[in-house]
Amino acid sequence: MLKLDGIEAGYGAVQVLRGLTLSVAAGEVLCLMGRNGAGKSTALKTIMGQVRASAGTIELDGTRIDGLPAHEVPRYGIGYVPQGRRLFGDLTVAENIEVGLMTRGRGARVRDHVLDLFPRLRERMGQMSRTLSGGEQQMLAIARALCLEPKVLLLDEPTEGLQPSMIALIRDTVVALKKTGVATVLVEQRVDAALSVADRIAFMVGGSVAETVQVGDLTSGAPQFISYVGV
Amino acid sequence: MTAAVLALTASGLSLVFGIMRVVNVAHGAFFMLGAVLAWFVSEWVPGPAGLSFAVALVVCPLIVGAIAAAADMAVLKRLNYEPEATIVATIGLLYILEQAALSFFGPDARPVPAPLDFRIQLPWFGYSGYKLAVIVGAALVLLMVWLILKHTKAGLIMRATQIDRDTARAFGINVDRVYAGVFAMGAGLAAIAAVLIVPIQQAHYLMGGDPLLLSFIVVIIGGLGSLRGTLVAALIIGLGDGVISTFFAPTLAKILATLAVGLILVLRPQGLFGKRAA
């Protein structure tokens, strides 16, 4: 479904991604793990067109999307939950959801479906999103991305700073999406969270994938976690 | 009336800064262009003054908005909306527009007939009916701007872009198009203000200086990017300017307004209603 091949990208003179190659299929969860600076978040930003690839290709269902303006990428069905949530803080919950719905012209059916997934948001529709708790903000960030009815969902450290119940809710959501055929690329630092939802884990070092392993072949004490993530 | 027109002009400047983070030094030139175009319309459209005024009220903001949008796409976008670079660029734009007006319009001040000519006579004083109409017109336009920003899809897109343009792009918002639209809207508001006031002030190619200065005073006092702050500050500065100019001297009014800006910058740099930068 989503395929990156030989991607080179960075910020000005600083090159971060060096020949990044990876793919994720429909209904699959691929987890990107690695130390700080390995290029995990940059990989997601490059898929979204926010960081320009200087070489390589990105294909979604066989269509090249690497040359598209950043605002056209989500219209192909790629939902993005950035690190730190990046909600529109001075907009209400309802308005944040409305922005998500507008992206691909979705309406009340999708809104109701998304709010059914996160009923707590339904009670907060008129509230400014910056006043939500951390967990509720993450729910809203995911809900906003799901308003696109994405084929591919990019999640950048969605469990960061959240309590266990919220982490479980996010895990259940990702598992439910997987069953509907959504391909997910998850950036995650927590080994237990990665092992509980991912099908494969791609360990990144220096802007490229050093090793990709099926989750069934890993345990929480696997040597890859020590050498690539440092935990 | 000064307060109403000033609120209209300053809200355009505030809108552009609030959403695009661009300090538009050419805002006064867009105001001037609105007035100059209103004069051309009054010359070219036959019939009663009311008709040419109505045409000017529609056509001038559209033309000025189109020029602003073109300037945004040709200049500001290429500068990636860098704050310092856009200040220099809009100074250049100011001179280009003023010299263009001088070339095509000439150096003379030219009158535009008022569409209404009646006076409201109260027992203790009289007031121009046209000035009253300007106040109502400006208030209606400002109400429309507020409704657009708060209750329309376009307004939601503008506010989302204002908060975080990268995330806005991740949700399909064409930020370049939003910026061009906002720059056009800001210039269009200045042009509407100019069309409303030109029957009282006359059109002149250098008439944009005062509105620009007063608009900056208003948005600094009110808080850059805050529409509510802009309205409150316009009311304070506009009424203050009128009263002090009438009973003392116009220069004293400008001195006091500038002093108020100085005090605000020292005591509350974000303005009365602005938000402190994170």
Query: Could you name the ranges of chain B where pLDDT drops below 50 across 5 or more consecutive residues?
Result: none
Order of helices and strands of chain A: EEEHEEEHHHHEHEHEEH
Q: Largest sheet of chain B, described in full? A: 2 strands, antiparallel
The total count of helices of chain A amounts to 8
Which H/E pattern describes the elements of chain B? HHHHEEHHHHHHH
CATH class of the domain at 1-77 and 177-231 in chain A: Alpha Beta
In CATH, the topology of the domain at 1-77 and 177-231 in chain A is named Rossmann fold
CATH level 4 superfamily of the domain at 1-77 and 177-231 in chain A = P-loop containing nucleotide triphosphate hydrolases
Could you tell me the mean pLDDT of chain A? 92
Give the domain tally of chain B: 1
Range of helix content of chain A? 25-40%
| Quaternary structure annotation | heterodimer
What is the approximate shape of chain A?
Answer: globular
Unreliable spans of chain A:
none
Strand content of chain A: 25-35%
What structural class do you assign from the helix and strand content of chain B?
mainly alpha
Taking the sheet with the most strands of chain A, its summary is:
6 strands, mixed
